[in-house]
Amino acid sequence: MKDINVLVINCGSSSLKFQLINSKSEAVIAKGLCERIGIEGSQMTYAPAGGEKTETVTPMKDHTEAIRLVLGALTDKENGVVNSLDEIGAVGHRLVHGGENFASSTLITDEVLKAIEECNDLAPLHNPANLIGISACKELMPNTPMAGVFDTAFHQTMPEEAYLYGLPYHYYEDYKVRRYGFHGTSHSYVSARAADIVGKKYEDLKIIVCHLGNGASVSAVKNGKCVDTSMGLTPLEGLIMGTRSGDIDPAIIEFLCNKENKSVQEIMSVLNKKSGVFGLSGDFSSDFRDLEKAYRAGEAFAQRTMKAFAYRVAKYIGAYTAAMNGVDVICFTAGIGENSPFIRTMVCSYLGYLGIELDEEANVKRGEEVEITTPGSGTKVLVVPTNEELAIARETVALL
Ligand code: AMP
């Protein structure tokens, strides 16, 4: 195994998350976050392993400025973790949309940058920010190899019947309108871990991964390959999420435009930012910790919201069990999947037909890899904390 430090960068439109990971020990050497880039009140949080977390409020007019600050913090004489930028052997970028151009991670070249740009209209909020992150790193570390790891890549193995929509076929041919799926790095990492945990070959298993975070998606992984996933052309489709609606009747959009005298764009903004458990709870909260408390207090708005959320997850598990003609392992991951025994129990209460028997003691554990079903359970259910940064670092090193 190579022994280098990999800087993993995840650029959003006004934020930048980073981790410096050693490829040999796989230890996180430092991590942090820049927020409000290009907006008043920019702030960097920086945490070296074993050291003190610092928060610096300082102007960051763009992502180049943010990356300059990150590199400054990493090489700082007092709080830094490396002596110079030479000790950063590679940069791994999380990229949201690779369209059909990328079925795997890739080293970044000028040609690759052009192919990513071609996908910009598929992810207008995310891809341009990702590209800015790459060019900022190129400017500041021109000789350091960089890799792009796509959220969509893992799902490129889906068969045609899973990725095509029931639309005129020329929309696919002309505009590449199809299901792509997201959170691919997480679905790939978690499903592979699941095989290790149950001690079977990845290629011999049927696995369903429920990535339940603020954004949420389910995937079906058969014999080591993704065969279906709940997000679509964009991350709006599928499960009921923090603020995103997930699946709805597409006719609702026109209906609401007429009723509310709003444009399609305005209704789309409602579907992305005001819907999901936030909207369903009457704008109470998108955070499951709040919803869980309200549920236990007997609040009807929290009960309908959490029931609808869990029901949708269970419905997808049923669909993917059918798609794979069975399931061996079901995994829960991400913020809610890893931390909410309550939601896991609610989802599993629908899965009696799979012979699932929860181990109540194991199910209350948090944030660790654990099998939460009894030895006699018909199907195994696991909690597998996701680690997208480590997966990106591994992919990056593998490409060098
Ligand atoms: P993620 O997008 O994966 O970071 O997940 C974020 C979400 O996880 C938050 O919005 C919460 O709804 C949820 N979450 C985090 N911790 C807990 C917890 N202890 N119990 C229930 N939900 C949690």
Supply the key terms.
400 residues, alpha/beta, eight-stranded mixed sheet, six-stranded mixed sheet, 15 helices, 19% strand, globular, binds adenosine monophosphate
Overview of the structural elements:
This protein has 400 residues and is an alpha/beta fold. The protein is built from 15 helices and 14 strands. The protein has helices spanning 63-74, 110-117, 127-140, 160-163, 169-175, 184-198, 251-260, 264-273, 276-280, 288-296, 300-324, 334-339, 341-348, 360-363, 388-399; strands at 5-11, 16-22, 28-35, 43-48, 54-57, 90-95, 106-107, 146-150, 206-212, 216-222, 225-229, 329-333, 370-371, 380-383. The protein has an eight-stranded mixed beta sheet, sandwiched between helices. A six-stranded mixed beta sheet has the order 11-10-9-12-14-13, sandwiched between helices. Strand 3 (28-35) and strand 4 form a beta hairpin. Helix 7 packs across helix 8 and helix 11 crosses helix 13 (341-348). The longest helix has 25 residues, at 300-324. The protein is globular and about 60 Å long. The chain starts with a strand and ends with a helix. Bound molecules: adenosine monophosphate (AMP). Adenosine monophosphate is lined by residues 213-214, 242, 287-289, 292, 334-336, 339-340.
